[in-house]
Q: What sequence folds into this?
């Protein structure tokens, strides 16, 4: 039996006690947004520390932050020149409300058929323990060929307010070659999935100034350009009738998708109905000629994020507002350069402004698209997934950014592998959150293969 | 010497003591917006009451309100079936700030050349006393052929918050046939002016709803219609490229101006430079084919008064907002019906809304255009002005509404004659406010002629 098979066998042999440990972890109501659960947050952190100590990690510690602590653990490889894998996770969970919508209580894990029901079963206590259990089985059956570190935060569900400063303050401790972030998921239970791209961003504010102060709309209406009307006209000209962005040059660096790419994306199931149910919008919208997933992942967008002018309180006030502003962001795709897109946008908008008002800009932020095709260690995980599922890995582009991945890339200089074994219908953030145990089992096997792959 | 000439002569003979009385009134710092000046407000009211008593009014009283009092005074005519003229005025003034911009102190009236400098000299203590002095001289030289009432409020500069309830509660006291409101002004010192039309108004709110909550713009941008963008597109379609309103049917009831009307309006001097200086706008704007005064007075308009969507705080937040709204008003001209215009606007906007968002409306207010060609007593004043200036009267349409006129029309059933002898460059609301004394003298003469005109 191979080294990897021995570790997988160890996991299978000890599944009962692993499940008890997992369920004990799930029983801790580590709701980061609930001040009343502060002690539970510490309990969950200490639970992880104790478990890490139990499986023989070289170091395991709970680091306080200004709110919820970070758990760090480390196990050194058997050889001195081994690579280091840093595994990111979060042990906090969403609130369980509405409580009465749960078939069994959110913090009393319950197995029904192939599913384990509990808050955090999928997002992401189950994902954390899948990697810990994989490491445990590797450790119990032979040498560890790779240094392994864990950074498990307690504030992901509230926007990771102390994560960046923690990483910055502990950059030496967190030094690594590879980052594995298993907080994403699979497109379905048959297709292991890796997120290989995230969109970039440019975010700016356009302000239109007219009169020096709000004017009486009766006395001046008809003779003075209204900044709110003029801003609306500008915004209306930022899109073409087909839904594409009208800024000249906006698409110059956007690659035309190959037929193969489009076929690859088309393999990923997606449902218009699900999109509508999740958002509550009356109908989908989008650039003509593209599918939902193409629009989400590989096409750039422009959106107004905020809009203000004049009087917005109750009732009415008859004024020509002195000014109006819009906060506008563009999601960018390879190989759009955010600084260049900002310049193109400003130039185009200036060309739209009539001489009756003045325009000014604030540049809020910009960030590059995230292309994780080349995240270190990616090939090892691809092979581990292939060997486990006997299927090709699906590479998926996602629309947003994953801030913790950006933070770690900036500070540690390492791109994250974004993956995971949760499924789209796991009801994360909702009542009756659950985990598909057969898929999760395969996940543990895949992570065992990943960890032992560095043997060569 | 005629009855009227006797009264005019009386005024000229007593001008010195009249000026002392006027200056004493101007010396009271009756700034309604300043809580520290509450006692001065009462002083000003009492000053008027005492003056009214001194000239032999039948009644003179200070009526408290929840803030600043109203002064009422009445003098009955010599004959029982005489008509009743109600004179509206306000004894409060704007704050004098910035104080150091005054050549002589705001509340120390100072005559330099033809001008009297003081806060309130023009707006409108000078206008109030011009009518009181006219009445005084008529009373001293013979019988009064018309009942005269005064209603002088102390809250005009802060929006007349208690005026409507006072008029409603004292409708019997205020019963009248004619209302004279001398709070307007002349287009220049050579042209007596009467405002004969004010625009109407319809004010509504358009709300565009998209997703049920703010969405992550990265995950959903490109597939979900953005209510802020969609609202901007709607607003952009409310005007045609020539600056006219694009709502179908909007102009159906608007009369085409006759050449004579246009010539009449063109007689009124107006300056683009002055408009730009007052507003601070970089350039004028407006419906093509119309002059400034036509746009201001006789053409309807549409303006956004307020605009809101999403995140408008400091910095940035990447969301697709759940909703967006705009507060929109239209200034209306004869013979547009505000209820009909609202219906046309709603119908048109609904036709612009794509199926990807939902639209809803709030109707805030509506009011008719005010056509004062037929205000009772108008012919008497026109003749008095002609006899005084030896010039035809200019009739001017103004863009806004005069709320106190609307209130009195609704409650007392009488349209106001809107006029006055202030001049456009009197610097009202500004430092070094002043009154052109030769014009003001003519005004007193004209009001004497107006009061004695009811003799016939």
A:
């Amino acid at each position: 039996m191979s080294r990897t098979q021995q570790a997988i066998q160890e996991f299978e042999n000890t599944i009962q006690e692993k499940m008890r440990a997992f369920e004990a972890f799930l029983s801790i109501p580590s709701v980061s947004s609930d001040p009343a659960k502060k002690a539970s947050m510490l309990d969950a952190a200490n639970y992880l520390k104790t478990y890490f100590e139990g499986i023989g990690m070289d170091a395991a510690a709970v680091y306080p932050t200004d709110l919820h602590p970070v758990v760090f653990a480390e196990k050194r490889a058997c050889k001195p020149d081994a690579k280091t894998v840093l595994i990111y996770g979060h042990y906090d969970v969403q609130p369980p409300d509405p409580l009465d919508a749960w078939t069994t209580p959110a913090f009393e894990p319950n197995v029904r058929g192939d599913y384990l029901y509990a808050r955090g079963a999928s997002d992401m206590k189950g994902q954390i323990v899948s990697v810990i259990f994989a490491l445990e089985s590797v450790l119990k059956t032979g040498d560890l060929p790779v240094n392994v570190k864990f950074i498990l935060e307690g504030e992901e569900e509230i926007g990771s307010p102390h994560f960046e400063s923690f990483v910055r303050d502990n950059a030496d401790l967190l030094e690594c070659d590879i980052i594995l972030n298993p907080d994403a998921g699979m497109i379905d239970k048959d297709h292991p999935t890796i997120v290989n791209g995230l969109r970039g961003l440019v975010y700016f504010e356009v302000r239109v100034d007219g009169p020096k102060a709000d004017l009486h709309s009766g006395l001046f209406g008809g003779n003075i350009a209204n900044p709110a009307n003029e801003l609306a006209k500008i915004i209306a000209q930022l899109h073409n009738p087909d839904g594409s962005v009208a800024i000249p040059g906006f698409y110059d660096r956007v690659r035309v998708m190959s037929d193969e790419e489009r076929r690859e994306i088309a393999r990923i199931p997606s449902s218009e109905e699900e999109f509508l149910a999740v958002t509550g919008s009356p109908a989908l919208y989008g650039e003509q000629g593209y599918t939902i997933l193409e629009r989400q992942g590989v096409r750039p967008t422009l959106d107004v994020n905020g809009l203000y002018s004049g009087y917005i309180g109750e009732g009415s006030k008859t004024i020509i507002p002195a000014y109006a502003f819009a906060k506008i962001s563009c999601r960018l795709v390879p190989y759009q350069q955010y600084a260049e897109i900002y310049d193109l946008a400003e130039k185009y908008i200036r060309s739209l402004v009539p001489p009756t008002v003045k325009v000014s800009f604030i540049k809020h932020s910009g960030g590059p698209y995230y292309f994780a095709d080349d995240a270190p260690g990616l090939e090892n995980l691809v092979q581990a997934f292939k060997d486990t599922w006997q299927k090709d890995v699906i590479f998926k582009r996602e629309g947003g950014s994953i801030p913790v991945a950006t933070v770690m890339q900036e500070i540690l200089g390492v791109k994250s592998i974004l993956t995971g074994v949760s499924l789209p219908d796991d009801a994360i953030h909702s009542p009756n959150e659950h985990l598909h145990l057969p898929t999760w089992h395969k996940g543990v096997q895949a992570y065992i293969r990943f960890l032992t792959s560095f043997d060569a």
